Amino acid sequence: MKQLVFMCLLWLASMAAWAQNQELTGQVLDENGRPIIGATVVEKGTNNGTATGNDGRFSLRARTAQPRLAISSIGYTTQEVTPGQGATSVRLAVATTSLNAVQVVGSRSQNRSVTDTPSPVDIIDVREVTAKTGQLDVNQLLQFVAPSFNSNRQTGADGADHVDPASLRGLGPDQTLVLVNGKRWHQSALVNLFGSRGRGNTGTDLNTIPAASIERIEILRDGASAQYGSDAIAGVINIVLKTSTKELTANLNYGAYDARYRFDDQKFDGGNFNANLNYGVPIGEGGFVNATVDYNQRQHTQRANVPNTEGIQRRQYGDPKASNTSAYLNSKLPLSERVYAYVFGGLNLRKGEAYAYTRFPFSDSTYIQGDDTITVSVPNPRSNIQIYPNGFDPIITSTLTDGHGVAGLRGTFGGWDVDLSNGFGSNRFEYGVENTLNATLGAKSPTSFDAGGFQLQQNVVNLSLSRNYKGVLQGLNLALGSEYRREWYQIFAGEVGAYENYNRNLVLQPGEPEPNRPAGSQGFPGFQPRNEVKASRSNIGVYADAELDVTKALLLAGAVRFENYSDFGSTVTGKLATRVKVSETFSLRATASTGFRAPSLAQINFNTVFTNVVKGQAIDILLDRNDGPVSRALGIPALKQERSQSASVGFTGRAGSLLSFTVDGYFIRIKDRIVLTGTFDAEEDTVVLRPILQPRGVGQAQFFANAVSTDTWGIDVVLANTTGVGAGRLTTTLAANLNRLLVVGAAKTTPLLQGKEDIFFGTREQAFVKASAPPYKVNLTFDYNIGRFGALLRFVQFGGVRLYDYDDQINDYYARLTTDLALSYALTNKLRLSVGSSNLFDVYPKFFNPQLTENGGAWDAVQMGSNGRFLFAKLQARF
């Protein structure tokens, strides 16, 4: 008996060993029998995978006893197969937007694959990107893989230190619409005031969504206001959440920067730790619940000690510290054969710490004595040597609470695909200030304050209907829908000590001068009761969208949308598009559209007094709300919507089985663009400005206004090739964006500010808008895989940008090339280790005088960032 058991075990072991070493081969084809190049083939439950070559064939050595393959490709329905001995032939069906709930931006057709859309769409496989690169958050991932996408971390930019502004095609963060699973996502409550990106704009905080919860990201690089609504002037980013089941993935990531520009001897800083888990369970027939938990912690970097510059006005300059905790869920719950419910969304909690400008213990005071100019060092009125003998570096803290949830029903009724949903989102931003003081309290001042904050909430009810009429010519898809949106915005005050001027309480002796100590907590004086606001508005939109295949080669598409806002009226936008298949391997496409963007509630209502440092001097500046007393006194008109006209033309195809390519040129004109004006100084205008500003205790002011119109010209190019090299597979991708923004005409000032066009929106402010994207960005990537080993080499060339400092001198940030390298190896069937470096050769932007830059460092927030070489390691598990 023992011998029989032993023989059985030996037989089973030998069969398992044979199975785990068997060579799995096959070919992946489309419905017409053509090979699908670059399809992903993964052995389920392992990190073992490959991709098809130029002929659609694959070869994979099994690592489990009973291997099962998941085969997928963008635009096709994923298929699972159990291979037998020998070759496996698999035909993938075109993915549709029917009950499979595949969302592909750019088309609402039920029978349109992503490769057939008349507008350019980028598809980014997040699993592939996160496995092989050092970036951990969504903004940085897209910055280095999508040429038309730009985002930079900033420092010394108040709230923008905690929320990275991002943009498409060089336009503003608020001119890109963000969807999740095809549903409108809420924006951040933050208005960007400083930095070189997104000044005066709001936008969606993509970093609240953990990369571990995302299956893919779709970027529609085309105006789409008529299709998807306000904010889609530059395009649409659609984030598709994971749907996998019976598979646990876990990731541990750690990286740090090479810290050569520090005061101390520390070799590395900015340590970034990330851990996440994702798992899905099947529910009924075709249903699922997929959940993700993610934790990310990022430490400060220190880049104040830069050589060969003229002065330092900050002892702390670098990335802020931040910790993110997220939980996200995606689900599909079948109710019948034709109807299912869905629920998705998540919660993100973030705490951040960012350094403000240094308050040194002494400052220089200059006076005239006879023919001489005398400079003496006096106690800094913004500091207190009893509390901080060596001065201090205020820390602006943030507590961000961000959540969004969507619930809906989807089904087919009478031939119509019907989708009804409700989504609610909220973004709350609370400021604190630590390591600070209120100078008007003297040595009795507390050293930390609650500085108040703001919140934006949004509720969206959406109904969409879609139907395909196959009998109309070669097929007609008709989509109809309506959306009702309600938004709320509020500013809430901080504690009294954060803003109060206690000089008013002093009893002065006869002849004693008024103290010149500024009020409020240093670093950020806090929101006051006079800043508090509660505002809301509603919007209703109705749209119709049609796509007609006139012939198998010719597609015509059009969309029209009517929207009515409760606070500024109605608008109608439209879009026309076409795609012509010249051959099976070459297509032409073109679009023309109008668009609009309503001013955000934050732009209409935001107001505060904040502290800026110019040439080493701290200045309190009033940013008045659009209908505030100072704005009214100066005749600043009420904000109105931005309007746009855009067009694109391009072609797409492949050369044989070796090369695929897309080339798209575009033009975008935006009229009445909303901007943050320059700063008006009461001392430079004693007739108009001083009588208005002096009673409010500030010396300078700025506003939001529809100041200018802009034209943007550009071209996007994407070339891709997958081929066999030796026993492995090499994928080569070249992606480039060329972009030029022009400010059209002079700034539109008010009668009281005539002659001040250069201040209202002059050369310096225009340069910040133009620097939203470099004039070109080129990405060349080589991705090689052989057996258990993988290597990725990526070059990114950032074009130079021009900014102006506080002396109106030109700061030319020259073009820079960064290099990324990542190596990976499958340690076991379940574990893969990756190591590498981003910005391998430690490239920095050009250095300038910190006394004169926007943020007080040796460079502004431009191009590829300003922290140098990043080294990282990742451990990925899949069960």
UniProtKB/TrEMBL annotation:
- SUPFAM superfamilies hit by this protein: Carboxypeptidase regulatory domain-like, Porins
Compartments annotated for it: namely:
Cell outer membrane
Where's the TonB-dependent receptor plug domain?
Answer: 114-236
Q: What is its main location?
A: membrane
One Pfam family here: CarbopepD_reg_2
- Where does the UniProt annotation place the signal sequence? 1-19
Please give the superkingdom of this protein's source: Bacteria
Keywords annotated in UniProt: Cell outer membrane, Membrane, Receptor, Signal, TonB box, Transmembrane, Transmembrane beta strand, Transport
Q: Which residues form the TonB-dependent receptor-like beta-barrel domain?
A: 365-840
Membrane topology field: Multi-pass membrane protein
- Keyword Transmembrane among record annotations: yes
Q: Which family does it belong to?
A: Belongs to the TonB-dependent receptor family.
The name this protein goes by in its record: TonB-dependent receptor
